Here is the input.
Amino acid sequence: MIKAVIFDFGQTLVDSADGFRAAEKEAQRLMLADFKPAGREEFMAVYRRIRRQFQERSNFSRLDIWEAVYLAFDLNPDRHKLEQWEGAYWERVKALTRIFEEVPAVLEQLARRYRVALITNTQGQQHYGRHRMDQFPELDRFFEVVIVAGEGGVSAKPDPEPFRRCLGVLGLDGSEAVYVGDDWRIDVCGAEAVGMHPVWLRHHSVTRNWPAVETAAPIITSLEDLLELEKLLEPQPAAPKHRVS
Here is the structure.
């Protein structure tokens, strides 16, 4: 029996896509001034490769990523300058973050039937003011438990620790909880590894290259689909096999 619905934050309850695009573009523009001899194409190839490597290790600190890019080109990074850039980066993301339209009503209805909680990765922005979820205090009242993974000694998702910590506070087994998130590796695989029921949100309003993977997890395009959660979690019949004569 499902007793709790637990959410990711970024790109699940709020849309920060425009903010990240603007922040990345500005950061790259600033960095390129130091990488002129390399040229834009070479710089971007190295930048994307290093960013991907850090993200695969669940290290989302822009400062760490940028320092590694400088070192890859045998340049000495100015940490103070990069810290200023990262502060401006997160302010830009925050300024362009919006709640998905259906979120307040969906949380209101779910909270009447289930316990509701939140597990979010910090992404490094805790060093530059509060996590961007704090700019939406109207959502806080819905969450019985909030786990910010990647800070305070708690490992970042998809590590099992934040999922297990949340379940422990709720006093629930993994099989009694649904986890809703937008990221295949971090959210779907992370939740599945601790026995939770993952639901993969691929929001209809977000333009994104979703990974082409096979999954038994339900895929939804709006959080409103969670209002029929029991039906959503029902096993789907296998596709009929065609007999070849």
About this structure: Residues 17 and 206 are 8 Å apart (CA to CA). Strands lie at 4-7, 14-15, 98-99, 115-121, 145-149, 177-181, 197-201, 219-220.
